[in-house]
Amino acid sequence: MNLSTAMKSLTYTLLLLPMLCLAETRERFVLIVGNNTSATLGRPRLQFADDDAAKYDTVFRVLAPGAYVRVLTELDKDTARLFPEVRQRAEPPTLARLQEAFEDISQRVRENTRQGRESELYFLFAGHGDVEQGKGFLELADGAFTSDALEEALSRIPVQRAHVVLDSCNSFFMLNPRKPGGRRYATPVDSAEAMGRRLQNVGVLLSTSAEAEVYEWSELQSGIFSHAVRSGLLGAADGDGDGAVSYEELAAFVETASHDVKNPAFRPHVFARGPSGDNQVHLMESGGANGAVLDVGETEPVRLVVRDAEGLRWIDSHSEAGHRVHLRLPQAIRGGSVERVLADGSSERFGLPAEKGTLSSLVSVERVLEARGITDPLRMLFAQPFGPRALADFRSAQAATPTPVYGISREDGDRMGLLLGQLGQQQRQSRHVEGALRLTGGAAMALAGGLNLRAGGYKAASWSYLGASALLLGAGTWSLLSSTEGEEVEAEYRRALLTQEDHALVVARTEERLRSIAVTEERNRFALKLTGAFVLATGAALTVWMEDVKPPLPENYGRALNRLAGPAFMIAGTSFLLDAFLQRSPAEHVLEAWRSDRAPREVPRMSISLLPEGGAMMGMSGQF
Question: Is residue 296 left, alpha or beta, with left meaning phi > 0 and alpha meaning psi from -120 to 50?
Answer without folding.
Answer: beta
